Structure formats: C-alpha cells, structure tokens
Amino acid sequence: MKSFGGILRRVKPDIPPNQATHILRHTFASHFMMNGGNIIALQQILGHASIQQTMAYAHLAPDYLQNAVALNPLNGGVTL
Description:
The structure is a single chain. The longest helix is centred in the N-terminal third of the chain and has 16 residues, at 19-34. The chain has helices at 4-11, 19-34, 39-46, 51-54, 64-71. It contains five helices and no strands. The chain is 55% helix and 0% strand. The radius of gyration is 17 Å and the shape is elongated. With 80 residues, it is mainly alpha-helical. The chain has a single domain (4-75), classed as hpI Integrase, Chain A (Orthogonal Bundle), CATH 1.10.443.
C-alpha cells in the first residue's frame, strides 16, 4: 500500500514539507463547521488554547450564530 504522503506529493508536488497535516486539519475543521458542527467542540477537537484560534472557521457557517441564538432557552423564542 502506498503512503498518503507519497500519493499527495505526486498529486500536488508543490506542497511545502509538513504542510499536508495542516491542510488536512484545516479541511476537516472547515467541513465540520459547514456541516453544523459546534465551535466549542471544534476547539476541543483541534486542541486550540483559545476560542479565537478556532473562530477562524466560524465564517464558514454563517448561520451558526443565528442558530445558536434561536436554540438559547433564555431568549424567549426570539430569533434573529
């Protein structure tokens, strides 16, 4: 079986060394948010020390904030 790194280098030879891992993490995080993932859960999955690091992915889920507000039991049913 061929290694993932070897296949990736053949398909995309201009990726700088050690960038494949970063690209995979970024792709996972992007798709996680686009599919309705929770930003706090993503922070924990990625091991980010601060939520600000993880918020870089929030723009990929524009309805995230609206959905979070709508689900808040303290908002009295008011939605944005």
